[in-house]
Every structure is written in C-alpha cells, then in structure tokens.
Amino acid sequence: MVRVTKVDLSPRPVEAMSPRQLERRESLIAAALALVNEIGVERLQMKQVCERSGVALGTAYRYFSSKDHLLAAAIAEWHRLLLADLVAELRGPRAGLGATDRVVRFVRGGMRAYQRQPELARLRVAVAASTDPFASEALQGMARADSTALRAVMADEVPAAASDLVRHIVGHAWQGELTAWVTGRTTLGDARRRLEDVVRLVLTPYESDYPAPYEVPSTA
Asked: For residue 186, what is the DSSP state?
C-alpha cells in the first residue's frame, strides 16, 4: 500500500517570512483595505486583491489561508496603527488627565476613526464571525493589541488585580457597540455614548477622590 504524505497547506508564519515576502504580504493587505473602502466587504474577491497588489493568486495563499484570513489580518493591521496613534496622542499634552478621562478620549477617538471609514467598521464586524482558525488568530492578536493600548492609557492608576477585568469589559463593550451600529440596531451617537458610559462606570471608582472599590478576587 502506498502511503500518501500529507502536505501542510498552512500559510507561512509572519516571523518566518523574508523581507521580500513581508513586502508581498503588506501589498496584499494594503490592496484589501483599499478595495474594502471602494466596493465593500461583500463584493471583494481574492482575485481583485491579487490584481491590485500585483501578487499572483497562488502566491497569495502562501500568506493567507482564505479571504477571511486576509481581511482579518488587514483590519488587525489598520486597527493596530490606529491604537498607536491614539496612545501617542494621550501621552502628549493630555497626559495630565485622569485614567477615566484618558480612556474616554481613547475610545471616542477610536469610534471617530471608524466613523470616518465605515466600511472598515463593517469589515471588523464581518470578520468577527469567521470560522477560519487563522482569521481567529488575527482577531485574537487585535484583542491583545486593544488590551495593551488600554493598559498604556490607564498607566498605573488601576490596581493590577482589576486591570485585566477593566480592559476586558471595555474591549468587549467597544466591539459590541461597533456591531450594534454597523448592523443598524443603534445610531453612532448612541453607541459612542453607551461606550463612554461603560468606561466611566468601570473606571471612576479608581479615581483618587472616589471611595475605593471592593477588591477583585484573585483567580489564581
């Protein structure tokens, strides 16, 4: 009996890519983001992305397992750059603000960025439902980037025991309000106000002139 060797068709890990391969990957992501803004998520096809980027279709699948994987990586990269800008802004002239006000400004700036590019908001919501494991990996990376950015914005004003829970709540509230807006269940203004209310609700108790909240039980 002839034994058939199973071929690994997984996309190449980013950390194993050469500079030329990284350049092709970035070209695919840039083309995908441009096309999403031009024609929307639903109409976009891998062939169009490859034609725009100049990367052959067969080659594209060495970097991304599917269209969902490409789109998840694309929105994750755009969102990462957005977070970097928001954190840098809040480390500048607004550094004297308390943690609550800084995080409110952080999520407000993020929502405004998605308001300016609503197709990217739709993209973020669309890829959240993907079952592609590599797309899920990219989205998990985006959630970790959210958490890291929020930690930087809050600085050391929230006790370590509560910080993870606060970041988890704010991150999920942001995703939830974006989803409600994109799917037409709420207005952008209402979504933004609710998100800011969540931030104030979970962070105000940690302000220095506010009574100390109960300790968050350790899960260790």
From this structure: S
Domains of the chain: 16-63 (1.10.10.60), 67-206 (1.10.357.10)
Q: In the chain, which ranges are continuous DSSP H helix?
A: 19-39, 46-53, 57-63, 67-90, 99-116, 118-127, 133-154, 160-182, 188-203
**Cα 61 from chain centre:** 23
The number of angstroms, rounded, from the C-alpha of 162 to the middle of its chain's C-alpha atoms is: 22
d(CA 114, CA 106): 13
pTM across the whole model: 0.85
Q: d(Cα 46, Cα 117) in Å, to the nearest integer? A: 21
Instruction: Assess contact for 119 and 41: CB atoms under 8 A.
Output: yes
Q: Residues 156-172: pLDDT tens digits?
A: 888 888 999 999 999 99
Place of tokens 């391969």: 21
pLDDT classification of 7: cutoffs 50, 70, 90? very low
Residue 78: partners with Cβ closer than 8 Å, 6 or more residues away = 33, 120
| Mutual angle of helices 118-127 and 133-154, in 10-degree steps | 120
Please give the mean pLDDT across all residues of the chain. 89
Q: CB of 110 within 8 A of CB of 103?
A: no
**pLDDT score of 59 more than 90:** yes
